[in-house]
Amino acid sequence: MKAWEATVRITHAAAKKRATTIFGGANIIGNAEEENEDQEEQVHGSGEVYHAERFLPNGDYYTGYWADNFPHGHGKYWWTDGCMYVGQWFRGKTMGEGTFSWPSGASYEGNFKSGFMDGEGTYTGPSGDTYRGSWVMNLKHGHGVKEYANGDSYDGEWSRGLQEGQGMYQWKNGNCYTGEWKNGTICGKGKMCWTNGNIFDGNWEDGFPKGNGTYKWADGSFYVGNWSKDPTEQNGTYYPSKSLLEENLEWNPQEVFNNDLKDCIICPNEKVPIWPSQKKLAVWRSSKGSDSSVRPRRMSVDGRIDTGVDKEFGRMRLSDGAVPSPSCAGAIERIRMAGNEGDDVLAGLQPDSLSTRGSPLRIPKVVKRQGDTICKGHRNYDLMLNLQLGIRHSVGRPGPCPSLDLKPSAFDPKEKYWTKFPSEGSKHTPPHQSCEFRWKDYCPKVFRSLRMLFKVDPADYMLSICGNDALRELSSPGKSGSFFYLTNDDRYMIKTMKKAEVKVLLRMLNAYYNHVRAFENTLVTKYYGLHCVKLNGPAQKKVRFIIMGNLFCSDYMIHKRYDLKGSTFGRLTDKPESEIDATTTLKDLDLNFLFRLQKTWFQEFRRQVDRDCDFLEQERIMDYSMLVGLHFRESTNDEHTPSGVLTPVDNGSLETDSVPRLSLADVDRLLLDPAGWASISLGINMPGRVERVERTNDCELVGEPTGEYYDVVMFFGIIDILQDYDITKKLEHAYKSIQYDPNSISAVDPKQYSRRFRDYVFKVFAEDT
Questions:
Q1: What is the spatial distance between Cα 211 and Cα 203, in angstroms, rounded to a whole number?
Q2: Domain named PIPK: which ranges (predicted)?
């Protein structure tokens, strides 16, 4: 008791003074003897919830319900910088209803989840702006109403913190816009109504009329035509009302841009200096059995331990069945209490269940770059040079400006062009060091339009594939016998193709183009070019290849990758455990996670999977896969240093040729900054969680959830979409069905394959509740 009294007198003097000012000193601060009586520590069992008052070592103050050294239940936490949270907690994380206030006077009242403003809530800014509506991870997302301090208001849909979709904006002077929005600006179809009775109804872009539209006056006159801020692109017809016919008035459409829209300015969104999820909690150290050598740590409100990790954690080595040393046992307990346990599933677990479960998930410290660089002397060096020369010729060749509206003839399989590349060069081709070859472009207009649709800059495209850096060949060909090549910047993957696959793609190219154009969030592979190289010589060898996007091109390190079909036969990796690393693509029976997405993302995911599977089924495609990559956010840079029991552990890999790694702070900055959300789309850079599962038998497709959760960044998409149900696959189905369960094999009818694929995907992907 005396040691605790001395600690309180020395470390909490400043905290008492501040708490007296904020909460009222008469009820909190008394003399030393009264305080010792009030705060005399009692022995509480692990997991026991009790009311407590804490003056924390860094000067923060907490009063409310407490369990296992962390706020748990209803409580009030005050930070020394003036921020305050009052509401529900779950093991040190804001979870449920609560109110967060900033020293600037701003406040948020509503739902919290894992430390984030998430759900329905009301934010009032320091200037008086108010937003009432839906939130996802600190950002306005869903339907909401924003009332600005200057009298303007917006009622409509939001996405990633900005107006997106249908919405109505009303200015304080009475002018009103109703229609479509994109990235916080008026964009799409919409109607602007002015208080003088004038109306514009038509297309908008970046806040101004663009394209077809009609401007109507209150007296009945109207102007119909094509609108643009550039007067040279403006054209249309003015129709005066009957009362003005005799006057034959002329009117300049630019008056709308210069006068009518001059005061129709959209108020900018507020900037929040720090989000509730970024606030740190001071970890309480009980004097009962505490280790004075352990320095205090701070934990984020979303449950993450600050980067200052106790050194004793670095000495921990756990494996299945291992018994930790006494010095490590305390560290494990503290990690467990500070871990990412903010889910109802975990609430029912026994206190020691988390620390006695199997070995921690291990992830590599660095990941070796895939593939071998193709340098001079490599067997495919000449082929790479030919490919780069051909791409440079195809993309750089002058031609008409690409359009998204293509004629049916552009999709004709006969729409292909041969170009001869002699070694000495020609009128249209440069001299080169490779042998003479011929180059074929398939449907070039279509793929040029696809690159424009996918927002690929031609110069960047050529630089990635044809720059000074060589391509990398993956170490072994795929099951189909195709070879894969990666560009040096990892943006594009090049795959050699069989003639049958080329025929399938050309057959479905029109439908593919219409599908990816209609659905911006499609998960199917993005194709950028289809080509063929014919080498001169006795063999007259032809090499056909497709250029496509690399799903895993990211600043994030991919720690786990899976190829999932929803079948069981042959769906277990054949590598021994010692050879499996972060570049190994695992299969269905290797999967030991459920993937959990935020509600709005999961709903969009289900819709898009249904659309994509309907498209593939219609085109008689089967044997496709869901490729999934995971980056575990909780990992640290210290070898074997977990920041919580539910945190992956480094495997100590010492590869030198590695992929750059983002720090946890970098990841947070990308995910929490609204600007970082611009890089997030369905299947790309998606924040989420995974839950570990355990199988009761080796052939079970989806295991039982264990309640272990990990914060991750996900990547996923549908790949291998060029296998139709031809005679070969029909024979494979018939042969294997005799030996094995027909439902366990991959080669099944496209309709059955689509149904089985969806059923499986919707089991391993779930809403994060």
A1: 6
A2: 377-765
